[in-house]
What we know:
The complex is a heterodimer of chains A (246) and B (311). Chain A has helices at 2-21, 27-30, 47-77, 85-97, 100-111, 115-139, 143-151, 156-186, 199-207, 211-243. By secondary structure, chain A is mainly α. Chain B is an alpha/beta fold and 311 residues long. In chain B, the strands form three sheets. Chain B has a six-stranded mixed beta sheet with strand order 6-7-8-3-9-10, sandwiched between helices. Chain B has a four-stranded antiparallel beta sheet with strand order 2-1-4-5, covered by helices on one side. In chain B, strands 11-12-13 form a three-stranded mixed beta sheet. In chain B, strand 9 (205-210) and strand 10 form a beta hairpin. Chain B is globular and about 60 Å long. The complex binds adenosine-5'-diphosphate and magnesium ion.
Amino acid sequence: MPRAATLLRVAALGLLAAFLLRPQAFAALFAPLTQYGAPPIYDQGNLLTLTLAHLATVCAAAVASTIVAVGLGILVTRQSGAEFLPLSRALVNIGQTFPPVAVLAVAVPLVGFGVKPTLIALFAYGLLPIFENTIAGLQGCTSELLEAASGMGMSARQRLLEVELPMAMPLILEGVRLSLVISVGTATIGSTVAARGLGEVIIAGLLSSNTAFILQGGLVTGLMAVLLYDAMGLVERRVCRAAHVA
Amino acid sequence: MIRIENLSKQYGATTVVDAVSMEVERNTITVIVGTSGSGKSTLLRMINRLVEPSSGRVLIDGKDTRSEPAHLLRRRIGYAIQGHGLFPHRTVAQNIATVPHLLGWSELRIGARVAELLRAFQLDPAEYAGKYPHQLSGGQQQRVGVARALAAEPSVLLMDEPFGALDPIIRSKAQDDLLDIQRRFGTTIVLVTHDIDEAFRLGQRVAVMSQGRVLQYDRPAALLTRPADSLVARMTGLADRALRLLSLTTAGQIATPGSAGGPTIAASASLRDALSEILWHGAESAQVVDERGAPRGSLTVAAILAHGRPE
Ligand SMILES: Nc1ncnc2c1ncn2[C@@H]1O[C@H](COP(=O)(O)OP(=O)(O)O)[C@@H](O)[C@H]1O
Ligand SMILES: [Mg+2]
């Protein structure tokens, strides 16, 4: 089973790399999808550059979401911050339910076109899974464990850093993983406000009725999501094993 | 020495611990026993300030426990709880090293101490140091929990129902181990339990608690022979008090020189066990031997029975 998974992983990564580095080699494959001699491979920009820009946007947003969501999660699970739980939860939920397209529409007049409104939309959209998982992870620490930690003379800070966070880490990572994957797909809409990314390929396809472009944009995005999901799974398992929890 | 002065704890209008005063002697095991909800844990936790007293104070070696920050105080006091509270994400060695780490001991000193404790608790360091708590049996986890509490060489060890989760045979072994460990490290131990047998077996002094008050604080024999009131008498077991009294004295303590026939009994056996053994063999007396099997004298039924009633 793990061997099959590794094989699949390597194959997916190889396929993605091959396509991004030598897209023209796949021209024959996509040619049947084009009409009237339209280019079978996206030719309005470098696919590799677009993919890396896409990835960078997604990762930057995920880092910001993680910092804020974990920070909030820690705050509201402290005795002193418990009263902020309903408010934080409401805000984070709004971030998730407010459609990213609408966020873009609101953000563009404020920060202009480009990557900034996209980052804001992805950031808001990615908070919820990380926030909820952080809370669940921190609350999963039994009172017995916390009492033992305090009883041995850990300060509140030491208890958080040495007991609560390590114990919550698998769940927090699971939240980040979810957030990342959702973000990879969602980030394509950034291209409507001139952020560089794989959305450009899809939009170009839509504008010129070129199914091959649409498919290429979609496939690269999808493969990236699957590989990211998988990579985060590996990180999680490694952390769990190191921490011997979950 | 721990001096508890007029210590009380209220939660809202309910008084959970009610003006308790007692002194715990150095290098002894003191047991606080009482029914569930009588305030034992709260009293114990006020000693290391996991619970802040509503009034009264605690002095350890003459020093008020409030004279330093609570977390620093707790590093000097061992604390072991029911279900051990081991950190699942840390190895046995890391768990034991918790307080020494907090105190900033050198790695060398920590390593030596961890190995010493593992050996003292009959866990081979080579095999167990790197294991995780979930890889241990319940009895081993409990031993590691106590080892962790003792790691920084605290002069005081607080234990809250430490053996509560163990089955009877392992529990009995754990109690023996604790007596050994106490003798070996000379720690002052305050132990909370709801099990009166455990209290009698471990405690040099026993405080009987009910509804937040200490009804009597005395030597086990005195609790049986001179109970302060009918509640203490009932809690310490009216029906089998004579047998309990016998279990407080060992055969070695009352053996007289000479031989008298009958079964052979270890000097460390209690009079209760000695009597049982003599009855079983249909004899009138027994031979007492020390751990090496050398004769220590003999013991008659009459001599045993004389210890089963108040003076
Ligand atoms: N934090 C608390 N808030 C309110 N009541 C408490 C709290 N802690 C303990 N109590 C109450 O105090 C009483 C004594 O509790 P405890 O000291 O744990 O008893 P024991 O250890 O003897 O079973 C119980 O009735 C319990 O419900
Ligand atoms: Mg209790």
